[in-house]
Design brief:
Blueprint (H helix, E strand, L loop, with lengths): L2 E7 L3 H12 L3 E8 L4 E5 L2 E7 L9 H7 L2 E4 L9 H11 L5 E7 L10 E2 L10 H20 L3 E6 L1 E3 L5 H7 L4 E2 L8 E3 H11 L8 E4 L7 H12 L6 E2 L7 H8 L3 E2 L2 H6 L9 H11 L2
Parallel strand pairs: 1-2, 1-5, 2-4, 5-6, 6-8, 7-14, 8-12, 9-11, 10-13
Antiparallel strand pairs: 3-4
Helix pairs in contact: 1-6, 5-7, 7-10
Amino acid sequence: MKKINIFCFGFGQVAKNFIKKLINEKYNIKLSTTSRSKSSKNFFNGINYSNYLFNSDKFDKKLLVKLKEADHILVSIPPKNQKDLVIKNFSKFLMNSKIKWITYLSSTSVYGDHKGKWVNENSKTNPTSDKGIARLKTENAWISIQKNNQLPIQIFRLSGIYSNEKNILVRLKSGDLKLVKKKNHYFSRIHVEDAANILFKSLFKFKPGEIYNLSDNRPSSSEEVTLFGAKILNIKKIEKIKVKEIKNITLKNFFNESKKVSNKKIKNYFNYSLKFPSYKEGLSYIRNNFI
């Protein structure tokens, strides 16, 4: 049986689906994770794991032992006050480790607004939101550590993540979704299962210092995705609002930026065919199996 000792900074939906993939591939997994609340012993999909307190103020010193033992590290926690907490607290520790694989999960928000045009990993990064600016600073910090210390670090820029549990269909059914129309507004998304599959592929084909976009084949407008979701749920009426009526800052930032994110690099480099090439396959699958 293949073995892996992995430390996950943060244990959200991408990390959990990555661990599920490892379980499905019959790996013997030693797993450690972090939480902002408290340390605990937990159980996930048939495996026992240790969860350690780690927030901006403090961390459980016991996690240093597990971090030293780990051969793989996944970082999925967002920056805090424009700084990456893992680099802030553990960069010197990592520089002296014998780790095989460090993956930082970033966001396509680093590109900023490209007026609906295509972007790839070589495109100009010009984030406009605080979150996008913080993500780019963190990416640069990780790349600097990689170059200066020859560490095996890679970065994935994730588009909007949806899953079988968290998706636009759930929001439509609850009535917690309004239709926003904006001309030439495009965004990209990725089903969390495809994200996990790519992470798994990278265990075997790893190139330090590389950055990859994680997105599906079909950038689309919010209106297009919403209307498709309503159609397959047979919902006839959706409340419509204008962009200027949006009060949520995160949602406002979302509509301030428009781009089509290319996924050619991941498909070519990892020789990967998406399970859910677009929102149509993804949402149809969710409707047929989970709604």
